[in-house]
Amino acid sequence: MARGAVNLDLTFQALADPTRRAMVERLSRGQASVSELAEPHAMSLPAIVQHLALLESSGLVRSEKVGRVRTFRMVPAGLSLAEQWFNRRRVQWEQRLDRLGEHLKRFPEGEPK
Hints:
Layout: H1 3-15, H2 18-27, E1 32-33, H3 34-38, H4 45-57, E2 61-66, E3 69-74, H5 80-105
Antiparallel strand pairs: 1-3, 2-3
Helix pairs in contact: 1-4
């Protein structure tokens, strides 16, 4: 499997979980510590750390440890692979729908298609 496909798979896997999406949403507003990211979720700290590890391995977030505090921040470029994938599909479907629209214009209104 190509490296890009693996990264895209990891990105979608990371974003498939609502807890991880909430963490990404929170980090889009600024960096946060593990405890800050864990606060709104009713789960153990080890479970939170596993979610964050997957987000980090997907390239969506990065962490830094200063003393005993690990802080996470978004990596905006991490979403670009998924954005490119969506954009290619959007362009394909827009082109198809444009062709369908042009085809349908050839029929007078009210005439059976």
